[in-house]
Amino acid sequence: MWTPELKPGPAPLYERLVQSIAGDIRSGTLAPGMRLPPHRELAFRLGVSVGSVTRAYTEAERRGLLVAHVGRGSFVKTNASPVPDIPTTERGVARLTNAGPRGAGAIDLRCNTPPPVSLMQDLNEALMALMARGALDPAVHYIQGAGLAPVRQAASLWIRNAYGLEVDAANLVQCNGGQHAIALAFSSFCGPGDTILCESSTFYGARMAAEHLGLKLHGLPMDEEGILPEALDRAVAETGSRLLFTLPTLHNPTTRTMSVQRREAIAAIARSHDLTILEDDAYYAYSRKPPQLASLAPERTLYLVSLSKGICPGLRVAFLALPPGVARERLIRGVRAFGYCPPALGALVFEEWVREGRIDDIAQAIQKEAASRWKMAHQALGSLMTPPGADHSPHGFLPMQALEAERVTTRLLRAGVEVTPPDAALVSRDADTGLRLCFGAPESQAELGEALTIITEVIAGHGRTDRDGIV
């Protein structure tokens, strides 16, 4: 039974697995024609995700190391001539110039970002305005505590106008993006070994944070409106969990949105069990504006808003709104532990955009482009895609059985489209399985259109083929 050695290093896990395959072919450990372990078996043996193994096998095949046969598995190529190891700094360039039938790298539908809208003029004008009024000085200094007071005042105004939620600036903590905010909340309200409740599938960043901090995620069954209240009630009693992490609006990955009645039920159960809620409202801007859990249970809800999904991910600005009266000293210690202080330059740009009202124009431009891309996806995929809990969504979900999702993922990568590994979001075995497609990631609508065509062809069973004619 071949088990590869994954050497430590800066390269991604899948790349290190490809290096191990190449090295074992050179040494003769993997002989020509030898069958490699199935994806799931090797993933279990290595303690990694199936998606990482799938991506490694596909990349090894592209480099001429393996050949795959549908229904039979992956085999060492009989005339394999392993490509020499490429330095990590050059490997990405090589992939972009050589990967797949497109000849320019796979179309990336993995990263859930807002669609590209040019912000350079907005950025330049904000910096010029900050310089003109002498407000850039904090950008070159450490920022202590919860962030700059003017930035938090701007955030309070922005959340009120864009989210319809009144939040006192004194209760806001500035974070280095939403991922940082999640890690702060997890580490501040939980101890090693504690259990955090969440949807049966959840944001992969939350999974990473929990694993890194030594915390357990307990997935809760969902219906078309999200978490089942009775399941939450049982799980609190069974696990002793004190924290619920939830994405109630355009849930990632399934795009489901809780109704008002469901939110009220979740809030009531949290109140009855003295359960703290971490509400990640990353996609509220795309929604029909349902009431937040923070408005229904303000005394126990940590409310997370971020610029990453609806404004500009590169600014790395997010805010945690804390319940009134909740001690924030541990959170502030977490800010120092994870990064010493919140970044200032992006926050100052955000403040200037709020001050000038420019942030509303940016948000509208992004929503307009997102709606156009959603319309394209809906026209191409139709009933293959779950209807979202809003008029449009930055991501779509194609439900399918787990094994089929893995096969489609592999076929898409060979055909030139890269999607999120289907097991990345899974927390529990009863989770809905399928593929998440991120419509904002492609550089243009034309590139998105090409990806959608490939997806429909691959799922229909007569999709494009790789160099060896295997789909």
Automatic annotation (TrEMBL):
It comes from the Bacteria. The keyword Ribonucleoprotein does not apply. Residues 11-79 form the HTH gntR-type domain. Keywords: DNA-binding, Pyridoxal phosphate, Transcription, Transcription regulation. It holds the Pfam family GntR. SMART domains: HTH_GNTR. In the C-terminal section; belongs to the class-I pyridoxal-phosphate-dependent aminotransferase family. This is Transcriptional regulator.
